[in-house]
Amino acid sequence: MERSMRVVVFLLFGFLTLATISFYLCNGDLNIVCSERERRALLRFKQDLKDPSNRLFSWDGEGDCCTWTGVHCDNLTGHVIKLQLQNPYDIFHLSDDEFGAYERSTLGGEIDPSLLELKHLNYLDLSQNDFGGIHIPKFFGSIGSLRYLNLSEAGFEGMIPHQLGNLSNLHYLSLGGSYPYSEAKLLTVENLQWLSSLSSLQHLEMSLVNLSKVTDWLQVTNMLPSLLELHLSYCELEVIPPLSYVNFTSLSILDLSFNHFNSFIPTWFFSLSHLVSLKLRSCGFYGPIPNALRNMTSLRVFDVSRNGLNSSIPDSLFSLNGLVSLNLRDNLGFQGPIPRALQNLTGLRVLELDGINFNSTLPDWLYNFSSLERLSLEDNNFQGTISSAIGKMISLTYLDLSNNDLEGGLPRSIGKMISLTYLLLSNNDLQGGLPRSIGKMISLTYLDLLNNDLEGGLPRSIGNLCNLKELSLSGNKFSGKLSGFLESLFGCIESSLISLQLGRNQLSGQFLDQLIHLKNLASLGLEGNSISGPIPVSIGRLSSLRSLYIYDNQLNGTIPESLGQLSKLEGLYISNNSFEGVVSEAHFANLKRLYSLYASSNSLVMKVGSDWIPPFQLKYISLSSWQIGPQFPAWLRTQKDCEILDLSGTRISDTIPNWFWNLSSQIGYLNLSHNQIYGEIPSSVKFGGNYLSGLDLSNNFFSGSISLFLCHKTDKPNSLKFLDLTGNLLSGDIPDCWMNWQALKVVKLGNNNLTGDLPSSIGSLSSLQSLHLRNNSLFGELPTSLQNCKELSTIDLSGNKFSGNIPTWIGKSLSSLIVLVFRANKFKGDIPRELCHLYYLQILDLAHNQLSGTIPRCFNNFSAMATKQNSSRAIFYSFPFGGLIETAVLMTKGREFEYGNTLTLVTSMDLSSNSLSGEIPEELTSLLGLLSLNLSENHLTGKIPEKIGDMGSLESLDFSGNQLTGVIPGSMSSLSFLSHLNLAYNNLTGRIPTSTQLQSFDASNFIGNKLCGLPLTENCTGGQDSIPNHGGVGLHKDDDGFEMSFFVSMALGFVVGFWGIFGPLLYSKSWRDAYFGFLDRMKDKLCGDEPMANKSVGTCVMSMKGDGIHKSRKRDLFPEILRDKAVARLNELGKIVILSYEDPGQKNLIVTYVDLCKFIFIGAFALVILVVILALALVILMVGFNACLDFSSSAEKPFSAADAGGLRKPEFSLSLLFQLTGCNVAVEGKAWGGCEDDINNSESWEVKRMVLEIGEHKMGFA
After folding, report:
1. Res. 1230 pLDDT band, cuts 50 70 90
2. CA 858 to CA 863: how far, in whole Å?
């Protein structure tokens, strides 16, 4: 018994002792300190480190090293077992404010071998630092106690040492290289056999390590039996070797994303039944997803985004009920609508299906995913509206429906999504205003509604979004005063908002002081509105502002000096306003962080001292249209980081100093055009260490040769893509050194004094797309090597002395040509038929050469000329740091035009001033989209093609100076867009067709022919008069006899008509009563309920227009009450068509008439009885009518059915136009079949339309 008690007491004592020790260990009360040797080793390690933020300030020479930052010791022995020296900021989760702190917190320098003194070290983390490209120390492989080693994102470079294979106790190894978008180089490995020694390894992270030379990476990793996680993304892998046996069956996470396998997905992936996460993003996989996917029952994360997978999404995917995250985005090969079976995956928290092009509406069942936290359906061509059921998705924190075709408004139920932090709906067609319920989305931090059709203003409730950091509403139709918008942003949003983007809306008003309430605003975008007034002085109080976008507005006044107090400002964009005044050093006083300054197209004057040293280092400088000269700005010498420099049109009248050519090793685009800079271009432009991609020195006074500039040798290939030396005084030959500039896309050397031939090395420019050499003195034949420039879309060689035949290879090799201009050279011979292969050609100018032969009939193959061009997109050549809009100079309508933004809308063919012969090919009339056609000054014969009227797009047509015969085709009068026509000096005969267009041209455009009719003064007689008019019938009479008979019949008709009708009314009261009683009864019938369309006076109707006879403006010719009621009734019945008029309040009815028109007018409205029964009056009437018919052929501007509002085109048309002092009346109608005799006999007709013309204005009555 006693013995048992001793045992119990002993055990109890031991238990209490252990408990006491454990208590002190847990509370750290044991006085355990690190060893002196380890403390000294740590101090030596620190000594070689760079610590800009003094993170290791606690590592001093005294005290216990176990208490130092990042140092952990064993609680029993005091030995250092863990060093956690990773950057405290995670590069993958940085806010804008934290990035600077991240950079300051990085450790660097050298790593001292004193770490080997830490014999018990089992954990070492140096990740996310910057050791400046040093190699991973080999001695790391001798720290045998290590179980955890993390060197990822630490700025190491070079070969990974194989000595790491000695770390046999290692469980965790992370050697990931630098983040893929950083400038650091990758770590590399050529052999991975050392990994096979790490039998305990569970976690291997080698992402961003270059494994391109490792062929057995899969076999090696497959032999790691304990491996649970394998991360090999961004490793430059290209082949997945065959795997006969899968050994790493315990693998739970596999990430091979961002490699280049370009194959089917290997089936052995799907035998890894323990896999929880499989990420194969952007690997170049194609084909279907294997059905073996259903075997992966443990899978929770599946990512095969950004591949080329095709066929439909397999049903096996929808059997993975445990799936939490599914990412299939950017696989355009997937077919069909969004699968309905997706709703079976009820456990989904993340669903990303972007860029699959489902092309359907958003399905209703999608809104039932109440547990979904992230939904991304960007760029899928979804149509329809956003359902109000979206309010049921209350767990969503991220929603992206941008880049679709969604329309309608935002549903009010969106306010129920109180967990949503990101809402992305940009680039849709959403309409209406923002619902007030948006103010209930209290978690919202990012709201992007860019590029929709939203309108109105902002609801005041938006001010309640206390967490909102970024608000993007640019590219909508929001309107109203800027002040109203800013008032809606009062509230707790004032302190949270960091980015406010309201650009490209319809905002107006002034730039107000209200902005200062947004005290944390870092980015403000108001570009592309109609905001006016000056920049307020209070702008300087936005102390957090980094970017200010106010370009393309109507801002004016001077730039306030307070702008220079924005010490955090990085980007200032104020171009295309009306700012004026002086900009001095004070405006830039504290802009130490400024790197982007775009302020072109203002009237600003820069006045700084010649010794001024700016506080900033600018990367992007655009000061076009400022007054900076006359001296070259000396302050540029300090800008060592400049990448873009635009000083065009800045009134610099100086030479370029030598220091400028060696200015920067980074410059990519230089524009000094439109100044008065003189001197020679130096032999070596050393910009950018050959990074220079765009050089524009056009329109200056540079002189001398360009040989030294083009022919200097460099160590690296030149990257210049755009060279513009147009409009200088350059002379000498074009050097044969183009093989040094093979990246060139655009070469512009026009308007200089260059001589010689075009060197053969020009053919080495295989990327050349645009070549402009116009207005020089170049000569010789075109080099055959030019056919190697197969990308050419524009060639302009006009104004030179090139000779020989036009090469046939142009049509064979340069099939992408859009603009071909050989104007004003000495080319001879036939136009090669091979040009007909240039299907994309829109502009062909071969004028002023010595070409002969006929016009090729195959020109109808120019497909781009055969169809009307509707695309308003400019021809744009892009290059690093910028781009260029193609231009072309054309002669059309007798003038020279330069086209740029609208060049794609222009189609033109100019073959003038050659020696071409033969007929004009009928095939040319099939070029229905051609705007300008010039065949003048040749030797063309034959007739003008009858189908010339089919070319309805023509605006300019010139056939002058040829030997064309025959009549002008009547179809030409249908060219309604024609604004320039010249048919002078041919052998054309007959009457000029009648049309609104043709009679509007000057007579000089028809002289030198045998033509008659307006606009010529020659009257048509005899055979000439038989020339048919377009859409009409030719009538002929003797003009002289007509003139006499017409005036005699007019006088007799007036006397007989007036006294025969009005005489009895004046002298007999009973006649007057009967007459006006009859008018009242006819008025009642005319204005009664029966539609006028059912009234008919005759069976034949005709269009009559001719020269005027008489005009009256007297209201008393017609009873006022009848006139007013008739007009009102006609308006009720929709029978009055008003095309235009000068005075809406004018009540006078202005009518030009003769007795015949008066008879028609009065008969049509039942105003008179047919009282003219006397034979004499009837004879006079017929004489007057026949005379009027003759006037149809000389009408200057007849009024067509199309002009009159879309009436059907007459089958048989005659014209009688009354013209006196710009006031015309025309009656328009149609002659029915079998009525020609009635017309000629002036017996039966019906008024269909009367048009009153006053100057250019017309008023129609139906």
Report:
1. very low
2. 11
**pLDDT cut 70: percent of the chain above it:** 76
Asked whether the beta carbons of 1201 and 996 are under 8 A apart, the reply is no
Residue-level pLDDT at 248: 84
- Tokens at 929, concatenated: 């989209």
d(CA 388, CA 365): 13
- H/E element holding 791? none
Name the 3-class secondary structure at 81.
strand
Q: Give the position of tokens 């045992």.
A: 7
Out of 3.80.10.10, 3.40.50.150, 3.40.50.2300, 3.40.120.10, which CATH number does the structure's domain 36-274 have? 3.80.10.10
Residue 247 has pLDDT above 80, yes or no: yes
Helix, strand, coil distribution of the chain in percent, nearest 5 = 25, 20, 50
Contact, 744 vs 769, CB < 8 A? no
Cβ 377 vs Cβ 353: under 8 Å: yes
Maximum average pLDDT range among 270-279, 704-713, 1232-1241 = 270-279
Do 874 and 886 touch, CB atoms closer than 8 A?
yes
For 836, residues 6+ apart whose C-beta sits below 8 A from its C-beta are 811, 856, 858, 859, 861, 862
Domain 669-1012 top-level CATH class = alpha beta
Q: Give the SS3 label for residue 86.
A: coil
User: Spelled out in words, what is the top-level CATH class assigned to the domain 293-616?
Assistant: alpha beta
pLDDT of residue 616: 94
End-to-end Cα spacing for the chain: 134
Identify the residue with better confidence: 732 or 1141: 732
Dump pLDDT digits (tens) for 418-448. Answer: 999 999 999 999 999 999 999 999 999 999 9
Q: What tokens appear for 1046 in the block?
A: 């017409």
Q: Which residue has the tokens 């109707």?
A: 1101
Distance CA 879, CA 720 (A): 9
Residue 79 contacts residue 38 (beta carbons within 8 Å): yes
For strands 888-892 and 895-899, give the pairing. Answer: antiparallel
